[in-house]
Specification:
about 210 residues; alpha+beta; 8-stranded mixed β-barrel; about 30% helix
Length: about 210
């Protein structure tokens, strides 16, 4: 009798364990789907926002007289907190992603993030942009020297050429050090296919092409 009771209890435990694991799996799949859809909707919305601003910029420039002073400042104004920076494009990799101010979890879940304290596109210094290796910045695994990177902003378009890529320790903050020239540093975790928190950082360095 005890053996029968024990087997019955084991079957009951197994059934409840299966149900729990099924419910957990369904919850994770639902959340993953939500994250993907939410990020895509956010990208589409900010793309439209940026396109409207670019149309306004073109209209303002078209209305300028040839002798008038440039309407747009030579150096962009600082980005507002959590504001739209622009869109980064790497044509050879097919990478296009909106860049927002900040690198908090919510921002990087939906976009690439401009690293606070680094220069803005068009300014002298080091423009730092971070993105997740398993979403927006996954194509960086195929980056090559001399690849062109475009950053489209409401204040101007800026082109950079890749000069190097490297893997560094995450504590190596020297990669974001300022510069007298205009450079761009892309940061993501490495290895790209690592399961769990990746131990290193993949760094792409590019120089402004005038």
């Amino acid at each position: 009798m005890r053996v029968v009771a024990t087997r019955r209890n084991m079957r009951s435990i197994l059934r409840w364990t299966q149900r729990l694991l099924f419910a957990l799996g369904a919850t994770l799949l639902t959340y993953s789907g939500y994250v993907v859809v939410d990020a895509q909707l956010f990208q589409n919305r900010e793309d439209r926002h940026l396109d409207r601003m670019l149309v306004e910029r073109q209209g303002a420039n078209a209305g300028e007289s040839p002798t008038a002073a440039p309407l747009l400042p030579a150096v962009p104004e600082p980005a507002w907190p959590r504001g739209l920076i622009g869109r980064i494009e790497i044509p050879r990799l097919g990478l296009e992603v909106i860049v927002m101010e900040g690198v908090d979890h919510a921002t990087l879940r939906r976009a690439a993030g401009h690293i606070p304290g680094t220069a803005l596109p068009g300014q002298a210094g080091n423009v730092g942009i971070s993105g997740h290796r398993d979403t927006f910045f996954r194509p960086l695994r195929n980056i090559r020297n001399n690849d062109l990177i475009n950053i489209i902003t409401p204040l101007g378009d800026y082109r950079y050429r890749v000069v190097s890529s490297d893997v560094v320790d995450p504590r190596n903050v020297a990669v974001l050090a300022s510069s007298a020239s205009e450079i761009l540093t892309l940061v993501t975790c490495y290895p790209f296919y690592f399961v769990g928190p990746a131990p290193d950082r993949f760094i792409v360095r590019a120089e402004r092409v005038l």
